[in-house]
Task: inverse folding
């Protein structure tokens, strides 16, 4: 208790007397004065306030900001939102393009494959199997001529035949029938009776088309030949037509090379 | 010594209790803290100058805090709260610096 009189100013040492450090120490000695207690209380409050404020500042929310700062923040957020929005839209567009591009590619590939399959069946470069009918025309008197067979092919196509084979010759768009000296020639190859015609398509439609009055079966029987028609659920047209690249015909360039779906 | 210990005690209490500042006091607390720091540094300087007075310290501490908070309050009412609190912080900061410079001169004679 060096300081006896409470509230009295500290003794004023002459400048340059005991070192400032010592003066500070002497001042720091605990004194049981009312003012000292009050100062301690204020110091506690100050420490408490500092800690509180620091903590508050670390967990600062928007509620402690002033209006102008809030407006600034809002402006920034709006600006940023607009930028991000635009970016999102661009990315969305890119994504849509990519997605439609990939699915479009797959779809185009599938369409091209389907088209290739049907073209190969039409061109006779692929074996075809499916339901259909098999006709056997036995012609002991050699009365059946090429127009009769051509008629048969025509009638079958009319009835929806998709792949036709006579004996072991595939009938395609370019097939031609000739009445040669030795008999019927199809695509330059002679065909000998009995003629076996295999056609893939709807069996009922085709066989009824063959059997209608005035149709092929009747014509053939009038010529003295016999015809048997059997429907089948699973036939194979196994003969192939050799594909020759066209020498003269060229496709006309299309505006859109994409295959029709 | 006792006030210094009080400062530490207050810090510890504040750190452990996680107090939340009431919304009405939020704009004033930081300014009040800085004003109080100014008073503390002024007190230390007075000790070194040999003119320290407990009563003067307590009164200046309280008046500093109250006046600083009042100025900010006034600024808020006038719509210049942020500018005025900036000004208060600048002024108090200058005072703290000059006090610290004086303390330094006493302690290190430089």
Result:
């Amino acid at each position: 208790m060096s300081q006896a009189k409470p509230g009295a100013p500290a003794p004023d040492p002459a400048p340059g007397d005991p070192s400032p450090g010592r003066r500070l120490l002497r001042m720091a000695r605990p004194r049981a004065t009312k003012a000292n207690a009050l100062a301690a209380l204020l110091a506690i409050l100050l420490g408490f306030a500092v800690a509180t404020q620091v903590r508050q500042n670390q967990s600062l929310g928007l509620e402690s900001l002033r209006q102008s700062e809030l407006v600034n923040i809002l402006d920034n957020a709006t600006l940023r939102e607009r930028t991000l929005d635009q970016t999102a839209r661009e990315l969305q567009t890119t994504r849509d393009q990519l997605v439609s591009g990939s699915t479009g590619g797959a779809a185009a590939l599938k369409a091209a494959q389907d088209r290739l399959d049907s073209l190969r069946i039409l061109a006779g470069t692929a074996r075809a199997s499916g339901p259909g009918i098999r006709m056997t025309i036995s012609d002991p008197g050699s009365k059946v001529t090429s127009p009769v067979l051509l008629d048969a092919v025509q009638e079958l196509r009319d009835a929806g035949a998709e792949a036709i084979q006579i004996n072991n010759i595939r009938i395609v768009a370019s097939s031609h029938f000739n009445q040669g000296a030795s008999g019927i020639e199809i695509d330059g190859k002679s065909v000998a009776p009995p003629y076996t015609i295999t056609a893939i398509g709807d069996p009922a439609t085709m066989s009824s088309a063959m059997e209608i009055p005035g149709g092929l079966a009747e014509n053939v029987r009038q010529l003295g030949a016999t015809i048997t028609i059997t429907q089948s659920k699973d036939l194979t047209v196994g003969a192939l037509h050799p594909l020759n690249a066209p020498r003269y015909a060229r496709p006309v360039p299309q505006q859109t090379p994409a295959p029709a779906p | 010594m006792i006030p210094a210990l009080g400062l530490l005690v207050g810090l510890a209490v504040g750190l452990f209790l996680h107090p939340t500042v009431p919304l009405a006091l939020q704009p004033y607390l930081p300014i009040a803290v800085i004003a109080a720091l100014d008073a503390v540094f002024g007190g230390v300087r007075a000790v070194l100058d040999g003119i320290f007075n407990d009563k003067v310290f307590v009164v200046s501490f309280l008046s500093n805090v109250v006046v600083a908070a009042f100025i900010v309050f006034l600024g808020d009412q006038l719509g210049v709260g942020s500018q005025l609190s900036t000004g208060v912080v600048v002024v108090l900061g200058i005072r703290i610096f000059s006090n610290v410079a004086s303390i330094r001169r006493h302690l290190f004679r430089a």
Q: What stands out?
A: Helices of chain B lie at 2-17, 29-49, 54-78, 81-108. Residues 81-108 of chain B form the longest helix (28 residues). Chain B touches chain A through 47 residues (CB under 8 Å). Chain B has a mean pLDDT of 85.
